[in-house]
Structures are given as structure tokens and as C-alpha cells.
Design brief:
It is a single chain. The model has no long low-confidence stretch (mean pLDDT about 95). The protein is built from 3 helices and no strands. Helix content is about 90%, strand content about 0%. It is elongated, with a radius of gyration of 16 Å. The longest helix is centred in the last third of the chain and has 35 residues. The protein is mainly alpha-helical and about 60 residues long.
């Protein structure tokens, strides 16, 4: 469940920057949003690989 919390925390940390960028046209906030979204993409990829490894290990154990 720790991985889910990491994703949730990352998304929630971007909320203010999303608002600043889309509502107030703050360009610096847009840069932070892009960086945060890249971090989210990387975290999602790590989780995908982890889940696949666990799934494969469980199949081999069966």
C-alpha cells in the first residue's frame, strides 16, 4: 500500500501548481506541473515493473 500512498501524495502535492497554472497563468507553476507529471510517470513505471516481478515470482512458485 506504500506505493499507492506515494502516488497519492505526489498528485496531491501538485494540486496548488495545477491551480496556479490553469487559473492564474503562472508559468513557473506549469514547469513544476510538468516535472511532477514526469515524476508520476516514472513512479508508475517502477510500480508496473514491481507488480510484474511479483506476479512472475508467484507464478513460478505455484
Amino acid at each position: 500500500m506504500n506505493r499507492f500512498e506515494q502516488i497519492r501524495d505526489l498528485v496531491m502535492s501538485l494540486e496548488g501548481d495545477f491551480d496556479k497554472f490553469y487559473s492564474k497563468n503562472n508559468q513557473a507553476a506549469g514547469t513544476r506541473v510538468r516535472k511532477g507529471m514526469q515524476d508520476l510517470k516514472n513512479l508508475a513505471q517502477e510500480i508496473r515493473l514491481e507488480v510484474q516481478e511479483i506476479k512472475n515470482a508467484q507464478e513460478k512458485a505455484s
